[in-house]
Amino acid sequence: MTAPLIGFAGLGVMGEPICRNMLQKSGAEVRVFDLADAPVDRLVALGAKKAESVAALAAEVDILFLSLPGGPQVESVILGKDGVLEHGRKGLTVVDMSTAPVSLTRTIDNKLAERGIDFADAPVARTRQAAEDGTLSIMVGGSDAVFDRIRPLLAHAATDITHCGPVGCGQVVKILNNMVLFETVVALSEALALGKAAGVDPDLLFDTMSKGSADSFALRNHGMKAMLKDSYPKGAFPTDYALKDVSYALDLAAFTGFRAHGAELAQARMEKARDAGFAQEYFPVLSRLMDKV
């Protein structure tokens, strides 16, 4: 069976290592595009071919992967001028690995279907190191046929690939995953501040919590690796990105008719961090801004 011609647009913190894993493990020809030259050059050095635009990719490849900052960029690249909708050929499969609003995702699916283009949402979870290692978790929304088509390629970038349901369901699961993560980081920031104020060693506090019912991915990664060290590097998952994702959770709450109080609190804490000048720092920086009575 002939390997599909792959296109990949959006070679940022997550997109570049995902694309690199697909390039090096799949044996397929991969064409790449990004507004920045450096990641394109690195991938070309490994055997990828540079594309001149997303439009060129959409017109030529069999499967087009997108990894973009958020909903506005996804909407522009797919539905905007010189976008995928305008230039994509019948039979193309588009896989959006960005995190984007559920309603937008389903609108895109309907519009692409009118042109004979298949679509799946496949947002990713876990850390930048997981993207480097090819051990991401990917949540897919799409038809059974599309899922079967793209799963072998996603397996080069992930150890866990879950078919969550029809288009949009991958985004639902990813958005709720991040919502719970953000709320947990808020809880950890409160535990850290209260424990320190009460005279408990912070390292001992989090280590002991990791042995009990408070253990979590957030505790072991965001808590122990960032909050205990008071280290929030730029270039990780910044406060602005986290605010975008929590806004999608609140949009989903409104769409389903619920009030998500925990997500509202997480949003308020991250807005405080942003307003304090930490928009580009790793989002657990919100722990620096605990309120006192």
Automatic annotation (TrEMBL):
Q: Provide the GO MF annotations for this entry.
A: 2-hydroxymethylglutarate dehydrogenase activity; NAD binding; NADP binding
* Lineage, uppermost ranks: Bacteria, Pseudomonadati, Pseudomonadota, Alphaproteobacteria, Hyphomicrobiales
**Claim: Oxidoreductase is one of the keywords in the record:** yes
Parts of the chain that traverse the membrane: none
Q: What is this protein called?
A: 2-(Hydroxymethyl)glutarate dehydrogenase
Q: Which organism is it from?
A: Martelella mediterranea DSM 17316
Q: What is its EC number?
A: 1.1.1.291
Q: Where is the 3-hydroxyisobutyrate dehydrogenase-like NAD-binding domain?
A: 168-279
> 4Fe-4S: present as a keyword of the record?
no
Q: Which residues form the 6-phosphogluconate dehydrogenase NADP-binding domain?
A: 6-165
Against PANTHER family, the record matches this protein to: 3-HYDROXYISOBUTYRATE DEHYDROGENASE-LIKE 1, MITOCHONDRIAL-RELATED
Q: Highest taxon of the source?
A: Bacteria
Enzyme kind, highest EC tier: oxidoreductase
Matching Gene3D superfamilies, A to Z? Answer: N-(1-d-carboxylethyl)-l-norvaline Dehydrogenase, domain 2 (1.10.1040.10), NAD(P)-binding Rossmann-like Domain (3.40.50.720)
Q: Where is the active site?
A: K174
Can you tell me which residues the record assigns to a coiled coil? Answer: none
**What does the UniProt keyword field contain?**
NAD, Oxidoreductase, Plasmid
Q: Which InterPro entries match?
A: 6-PGluconate_DH-like_C_sf, 6PGD_dom2, 6PGDH_NADP-bd, HIBADH-like_NADP-bd, HIBADH-related, NAD(P)-bd_dom_sf
